[in-house]
Specification:
By secondary structure, the chain is mainly α. The protein has helices at 11-42, 45-70, 80-90, 112-115, 117-138, 142-163, and strands at residues 2-4, 7-9. The chain is built from 6 helices and 2 strands, in the order ββαααααα. Mean pLDDT is 85; it is low at 2-11 and 31-39.
Length: 168
Amino acid sequence: MMKTSGHTVTTRSMEKTMKKNTAVGMLILGSLELLGTAAYAESDPEDIIKYRQNVMKANGAHMAAAGAILQGKVDYKKDLAYHAKTLQTINSDIPALFPKGSDFGDTKALDGVWAKRADFEKRAKDTRAKADAFVKAAGGDTKAALAKFKELSDSCKACHKDFRKEEK
């Protein structure tokens, strides 16, 4: 039992409240995810392509910043966790950036993104897992963080090899 503001609260009632709040939170997040998917469906494909390109540029910028920190080129170790967390967020659902109907125009995405969707999604899932592992390592030993960063970088490169046009 715990006394708060003149009220006695049992651990059991606190657990029930926390479970209820967690369930409500998950319901809200699920609804937002569905709304986000619907928003993609209603967006202009050219706007989706531009958005995707901006997200991928941001992804590259955070990879470059994290790499510079881990290689000792800049002394911003305190910012490594921020870059890692941002990379995790960006890579949380890469396939959503490539909806049907956004496979034309000025884009580096190859047709395989849509034609070999299961393979693309598998690569994206692997990259997401590598980003998750990088977040866990980023707050600790630099050597361990560098190893996880390299795994993330290799995962990005593997996906680019099969699903992105080569740079000229």
